[in-house]
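Appendix C: a fully annotated inverse folding record. The material below is reproduced so that readers can follow the format used throughout the book. The structure is listed first as tokens, followed by the designed sequence.
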């Protein structure tokens, strides 16, 4: 098991790395290429299925499809989390955007805003810093 200090060091290092969506061309291009490759693989598997999936799809097409209405079936990969982003994080490890282990992920698995990623959480050392909101007075 890693010491708390080594984990803190790794987290600090990860927070300093460039993140997708933060304007770093190399990282943004890599992220776009990764998603494009994932979509290309999904389309390839959909239109050119391999055994044993191909055999099962052929059986479903023969049973449920007609010449006028062919049977089509697709399970597409997605990155949208909708309302479940709170629950999804409960079974994931920490991420490079600063999210701690078992904390909620950002909506649609997007990166947290940089300022948010650096806030300590109750598990990582305390509450977020006070934020001043114009027109709102503290009680």
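Designed amino acids, in order:
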């Amino acid at each position: 098991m890693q010491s708390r200090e080594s984990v803190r060091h790794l987290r600090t290092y990860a927070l300093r790395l460039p993140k997708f969506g933060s304007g770093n061309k190399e990282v943004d291009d890599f992220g776009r290429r990764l998603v494009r490759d994932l979509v290309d693989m999904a389309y390839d598997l959909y239109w050119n299925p391999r055994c044993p999936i191909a055999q099962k799809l052929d059986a479903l097409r023969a049973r449920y499809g007609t010449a006028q209405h062919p049977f089509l079936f697709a399970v597409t990969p997605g990155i949208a989390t909708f309302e479940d982003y709170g629950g999804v994080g409960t079974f994931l490890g920490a991420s490079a955007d600063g999210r701690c282990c078992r904390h909620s992920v950002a909506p649609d698995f997007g990166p947290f805003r940089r300022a948010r990623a650096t806030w300590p959480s109750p598990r990582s050392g305390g509450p977020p810093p006070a934020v001043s909101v114009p027109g709102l007075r503290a009680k």
